Predict the structure.
Amino acid sequence: MKLQTLACAIALATGGLFFSHTINQAMAETNATNVSQSIRPTQEQALVTRQLATLIDRQHYLNMRLDANTSNRILEMYIDSLDPEHTLFLASEVENYKKKYGPTLGAALKAGDLSAPYEIHAQYRARLKQFYEFELAELKKTQNLHQPNEFIDTDREKAAFFTSQDELQNYWRKMLVSQLINLTIAKQEDQAKQKALKDDPTLANGQDLASSEDLTPVQTLTKRYTRQLERIGRTKSDDVLERILNAMTLTYDPHSNYFPPVDAMELNRQTTLQLEGIGVSIRPERGNEDYTKIETIVDGGPASKTGQIKSGDRIIGVAQDGDKMVDVIGWPSSEIVGLIRGKRGTKVSIKLLAAGASMNQARVVTITRDVIQEEDAGVRSRTVDVTRNGVKHKFGVLEIPSFYLNYRARRAGTEYRSVAEDTNNALKSLASQKVEGIIIDLRNNPGGSLEEVAKMIGQVIKEGPVVQIRDGNGNVSVFEDTDGGAQTYAGPLAVLVNLASASASEIYSAALQDYDRAIVLGSTTTGKGTAQVQLDSLAYGQATLTQRKFYRVTGGSTQNKGVVPDIKLVDIYDEEFGERKAKNALKWDTIPTAPFKREGSIQPYVTQLGEKSKVRVAADPQFQYLETRKAIAQQAKDQKKASLDIDQRKAELHALEAKTLAAENKRRAETGLKPYSNWESYQASLDALAESRAKMKANQRPALAEEETFVTEAANVLMDMGSLKSK
């Protein structure tokens, strides 16, 4: 995790806690031995290690042997995953790990021998324990928050490991001062925000925006470090296994991954829109991070059927069927989710505390887990009206969050849901409403089923190839539109993409661009042009393994380079997000073109369409706002050091806040809304908006103005294209 200044003037602060702690070498070695004895790999974990190491050695797209060279790289990846900011291990210790384990780690993994990574992880946990104990001891001393000539590095990802314990301890002290500065400023801003709410209750918009616990910065950090210290004791063997197996797979490429059983369930949920659980959504309670509360309940789900669970209930304990109740106060939501989810038909007991109730009023509810169908997570369609020259024009919008397919249900011959079928029905519905064009919104779509995307391309083209795929041996296969020339929708199309559009999203937008069937708008996509096989029959957990690479029908890969839109709009994401910045990403290349016939005539008009779009975008308050916010975020990101003087830090923060507030108020003034009088009022309103939206189901949340402006611009571009073609 990077220590970095936070963008957009939300906070100018050094970031989270660092897993970086060496104080006394002898004590560390003693603690490491004790910790090592408490966590050992099981036979199943050793077996899955052997299975996955063999598979990646023989079946990965790169055909890269798991030899001594690869083995050294895996060890480096593993150490970096534990200590990403190089503030945990000393340089001499890292060098010793490399000499002792580097050349042989790969062979050990192929043999199912996990002793080396488990030993290193034990040392990591021991050092982590020492760090929190060190910081807790330092918190008992008075800290100087006024050090105008002192700074802390905020990006140590590529920095050298420290060479001495004195260097480490000096950095930890700087971290502590920086954290206290952050918390002091945050507390002052929260107090100002609470005053703004008291002076003007309408800012809360009916939401409960209770302040955080009334703790001093020292008390807050003491509580936080103590909780993190307790978490070390909850480390499971799965945590170690996941780290080392992902270090191995990520040495080959960013999309070969291992998922232990709990995470495998999440992977299946994303690809099938189903999960096996109780049917609730949870999140940390506002104002008290010790508690996790139930936010929403799925209608007809197991929790709903009990009639004993209500929104707002705090989860204070979880017990598996027949096991003791585990106290989860202070646990992060992700760990609580891991306890609650499980196989269909098994039981879980949850200890609940109603809002405002005392501990002796807690109740226990036992629930049988079942498959939950996420109805609001699939394809969504709607219409939008755009007025031009006094005339109202209707367009369809098709939001596709992922290319899902419940392949297991299909294989079993049971009823299942697929994105291609949902999209086909939505296209028919929109066409029946006489829309002038349809906008396919693939923003933030991570991809999914190759089979489904091929079907979906066939719904809007007549015939031909849709994507080419090459395996690690150089063999190329071509996916064709196989619906016999059927075409569900033949009208005007636009596709919205951004840097978070990946994989199947890129295949879809690239094909429609190459066929001249749709105009693509937005920002350059992720660049994930690889296909993974899902390994769901491993001895323990699941994995994905990259075995193929995607190519457009024109021959260029979507890998790394992504899909470049015809009309570029502001990119709201940091460039670090994309494939082009990922470690070990596969390279871009080309293969021969697949014979195909273009079906549209868009490219001759792209230059004119782009010029018209630029004029509108330059005058659009929402796009202006996004451009300004992006510039502010970049300014914050460019700062590689943070002052350890609270006055200087405040001045920098207030400067960013002033710019952000000015951008927001300019937008509000130009859209007929009342400007905010100060930063505190603005933040209170943002909190109220986030709180109200969190209580809505995903398909019921109205689009934010800055999101909807992309849709409006796409509709305007389609109108421009219609006008140009009619001349």
Remarks:
- The two ends are 55 Å apart (CA to CA).
- The longest strand covers residues 542-551.
- The chain has 21 helices and 21 strands.
- The longest helix spans residues 165-199.
